[in-house]
Structure formats: C-alpha cells, structure tokens
Design a protein that fits this description.
By secondary structure, this protein is of the alpha+beta class. The chain has 5 domains: about 45 residues; about 80 residues, no CATH class; about 100 residues, no CATH class; about 120 residues, no CATH class; about 40 residues, no CATH class. It contains 11 helices and 22 strands. Strands 16, 17, 18 and 19 form a 4-stranded antiparallel sheet that branches. It has a 3-stranded antiparallel sheet with strand order 1-2-3, covered by helices on one side. The radius of gyration is 40 Å and the shape is elongated.
C-alpha cells in the first residue's frame, strides 16, 4: 500500500478506525526494519569473519610467499610453518574458522592444506587458498566392522586373538605423535611405524589390503579407503580394524621356526630359513644350508632359537650335533645321532633341527617322535657280485651293511654301482 492510498483510505474512515490502521501499518514498518537490520548484521558479520589470502612479491615482481589476513591481523606463510605457528592470532580459538585437516608450507612456498597443494604460480592460488582456509569440514563417517558393536576390551581382545592363534595388533601414539603399531605373534613381538606396515605384510604378519597409502609426513594412513588420523581416536579405530580384518591366523607352518627346503643347487642339497627377533626387529635368515648360516643359528648373540650349548657342524657328508660341556669340550647327544644329510629328506632334517633337545621351547611331541624314527645311516661293510638265483645268466649285487637282516640285492648296472 502506497502512502497516497493510505491517506485516501484514512480520509474515508472514521477517526478511531484511522488511528487503528495507522498503528498496524507502523508496527509492520518496524518489523520490516528489524528484519532488514538483522540480515544486514548477518551479512556484515559473515563478511568480517572471512580470512583473506594474498601474496607478497619480491623486487622482480615474482610471488614470494602467501599471506593470510583478518582485518589488521596478518600472518606470512614462510616455508616450514605448521598450523600452530601460523595461527598466532588464535583465529580457531576465537571461532573465526575451523582448523584445517592438514597444513604445511613447503620449501618452495607452496601450501599443502586439506590434502590440496597450492603453488605460488597458480593463477587461482589466492581464491583456492581462501576457499580452503575458510572451509567448513563435514565429519567423515567412520567405517567400523559390523562386529564391533559389542567389542571386548583391548586386553580381552588380545587374549582372545592369542587363544585363536591369531596375530594381535596394538596401536598407540609415540613421543612424536605418530602412530606406532605393536604386532604380537605368540612370544614374538615387533613394533613399527606406519612405514613398516609393508614389511608386516611381506613377513606374513598382516593380511594385504587392497589399497594402502601412508601420508608423506606420517600424519595419517589410509587402508582400503578408510583414513586414520594420528590422534588417540584414530589409534583406537586403527587397532580395532587391524585386529578385525587384517590379523592373519598363525598356521601350522609357524610350529617349525627352522624350515628346510630341498635345493639341488646347494652344496648340501638344502636351503634353510629361520627368523629371530633382536632389539624388537624381526630378522629373517634364509639361503643355502651351509656352515655360515648354522653359525648364525647357534650364536646366542645373534639368534635365540637353539638350546644353550648346542653346536651344529657340517662335516661332509654328515651333520654333527654336539653339546658344549662346562669345561669347554664337546659331547655327543645320545638321543640324536649324527646325520648323513644326503640320505635324508628335507622334512626329516627340518624335524631334527626343531627337536626339543635342539630348539628352545619346542615342546612338540610329534617332532620328537618323528626324529626318534631317524636311524643312523647304514654303513656299507661288504659288496658281493653273485648270480641271480632265478636267472643264472644275470649278475646281481649283494650289499652287506651294519644293519641286521638279509643283504640287499640289486641288478649289476652302472646306476646301482654309482648309488
């Protein structure tokens, strides 16, 4: 209603009704003014709360560093600055902006913020930096395994994992604020950082995820699309996910820490593999079965797999097993004879080296029974050439050995003679 229409309407109305109409219109005008004033305050406030970005140039007119400003408050983003040093005016504490998810000024002057890299030469550098510094971050959904609703405590989870024969993970923050992963398999315990996750996968202590990405500054790790920050909450979430989805079950192969495989290329015909833990690091020794690797295996300063005083020596074609006496001498082990390694299989030799009298904490009755079945190799006493009773035209070999019983008979061929 225009002012002219209001005057005409007021002239036609009685005096009392004119006053009432005037009061209504006045109230409407006051409400409109208040609404416009509120919108103005909100608009001005939003504008004043915005952090502005800028550039400083050198004498040649080239961009040198970024700047951030709020009114008369200005900070310069020199290389090496993190967010704590940058926010010297406490913009986050004052509620002007939210803290960036990540922030670092590179030596080139470029800024890494919220996972985005903004260079000085980018034509849209200022607008990009303003957008990122004023961004409102929506909390990312935390992906949790379905069975974590009624999860046990960390201690109960570790006991349950060990009872099920699974590797157990414990994640914590180290003194630098980085994520540290403790991996326990039986009595073996290893501690590593985020960059050591790949080694855990290679050594069979962690199931391989489809995607694994570690932040260059170790501020976070992303596993199969789920990001875990270097915070107490992130450490707890990572521990739960590792134990629920990436903890392998310790199989039967770990019952024999000393593994023997056949390899015709080796001088002894076998390869050896064993793992030891020193200073928290898991060290794998593998290669041809030779005296050098046996020396590592029986050296208590380098490996703790063998019983104290056990000595293993290769004296072709035998593997000699001795125990060191307190006086410095050596003695045989009556329960374990010397073995001709060219006449045993890889499985038999592996069982022998994992015998409870040789390896620490073996405790496997099956291994002991298997090794007890190993008999000393038969020594050849006499070799005779005789005629075959069924066919006198054929010559046969009779081999008399130290074992009792009928002599073995074979056809007289160059293959049998070589054997």
């Amino acid at each position: 209603m225009s002012l002219g229409q209001f005057l005409i309407l007021g002239a036609d109305l009685p005096f009392g009704e004119t006053i009432a109409l005037s009061a209504c219109v006045g109230e409407l005008l006051l409400l409109t003014a208040a609404a416009l004033g509120l919108l103005g305050v909100i608009g001005v406030g939003a504008k004043e709360r915005r952090i502005l970005a800028g550039l400083h140039y050198d004498a040649d007119g080239k961009p040198k560093v970024f700047t951030l400003s709020y009114g008369t408050e200005m900070v310069t983003l020199h290389p090496g600055k993190d967010w704590i040093k940058t926010d010297e005016y406490k913009w986050v504490t004052r509620g002007l902006i939210e803290p960036p998810q990540s922030f670092h000024v590179l030596p080139t002057g470029a800024v890494e913020i919220n996972g985005e890299k903004i260079t000085l030469t980018d034509p849209e550098a200022i607008s990009k930096l303003e957008h990122e510094i004023n961004k409102t971050h929506v909390p990312a959904p935390v992906h949790r395994p379905a069975a974590l609703a009624a999860r046990p405590t960390a201690t109960a989870h570790g006991a349950l994992s060990r009872a099920q024969g699974k590797v157990h993970f414990h994640v914590k923050l180290d003194s630098l604020g980085h994520l540290a992963i403790e991996c326990t398999r039986g009595s073996e315990q290893i501690e590593t950082g985020l960059r050591g996750l790949q080694n855990l996968i290679v050594n069979g202590l962690m199931l391989k995820p489809d995607a694994l990405h570690v932040d260059a500054l170790q501020r976070a790790v992303e596993i199969d699309g789920v990001r875990f920050e270097c915070t107490e909450a992130g450490a707890k979430q990572l521990e739960e996910v590792l134990n629920a989805r990436y903890a392998p079950t310790v199989g039967a192969e770990h019952e024999s820490p000393i593994e023997i495989k056949e390899n015709p290329a080796a001088a002894t015909g076998f390869d050896i593999r064993f793992v030891t833990v020193k200073a928290g690091a898991r060290i794998e020794i593998k290669g041809h079965l030779n005296q050098e690797r046996l020396d590592i295996l029986q050296d208590p300063a380098k490996c703790d797999l063998l019983q104290p005083g056990i000595m293993l020596r290769l004296s072709a074609p035998n593997l000699l097993i001795r125990r060191r006496r307190p006086d410095g001498g050596e003695e045989h082990l009556p329960e374990l004879p010397d073995i001709q390694y060219r006449r045993v299989t890889a499985l038999q030799l592996e069982q022998l080296l994992n015998h409870p009298l040789i390896r620490r904490a073996s405790g496997s009755a099956s291994l002991q029974a298997a090794v007890e079945e190993l008999e000393p190799p038969a020594e050849l006493v006499e070799l005779r050439v005789v005629r075959n009773p069924q066919d006198p035209l054929l010559l046969w070999l009779e081999c008399l050995t130290t074992r009792a019983g009928e002599p073995g008979s074979k056809a007289l061929t160059h293959h049998n003679i070589a054997d």
